[in-house]
Amino acid sequence: QVQLVESGGGLVQAGGSLRLSCTASGSIFSVNFMGWYRQAPGKQRELVASFTSGGGTNYAESVKGRFTISISNARNTMYLQMISLKPEDTAVYYCNADVRLGVAASIGRNYWGQGTQVTVSS
Questions:
Q1: Are strands 91-100 and 77-82 parallel, antiparallel or unpaired?
Q2: Tens digits of per-residue pLDDT, 44-60?
Q3: Residue 27 has pLDDT above 90, yes or no
Q4: Cα Rg for the chain, rounded, in angstroms?
Q5: How many CB atoms lie within 10 A of CB 111?
Q6: How far is CA 38 from the centre of its chain?
Q7: Distance CA 79, CA 17 (A)
Q8: Contact 69, 10 (CB under 8 A)
Q9: Whether the Cβ atoms of residue 38 and residue 90 lie closer than 8 Å to each other
Q10: Residue 63 DSSP symbol
């Protein structure tokens, strides 16, 4: 019913920049949560950036000042702008959303994108 598709990953040198996109298809009545996660080999999946219900943003300490989360409602797309990339940013990045599909939905449903690989070379 709802599908999230990520794009924008790739190979970049340390200090470079990359912009990830997550486009949603399907009908979404309301959004409970939207954010970006990442998972590196041998590490747990971590929340990198997300929106708060009040319209603010949250960032993991490791990416503060370097990553920016944003959204285009018209395009149903969430973005993650990444600058000053470091080798330790190398991971598969996933967009995530918990949404209500209609007014009759008492709780949200959780959706994940397929993941996009970000590789930062030293």
A1: unpaired
A2: 999 999 998 888 999 99
A3: no
A4: 14
A5: 17
A6: 8
A7: 13
A8: no
A9: no
A10: T
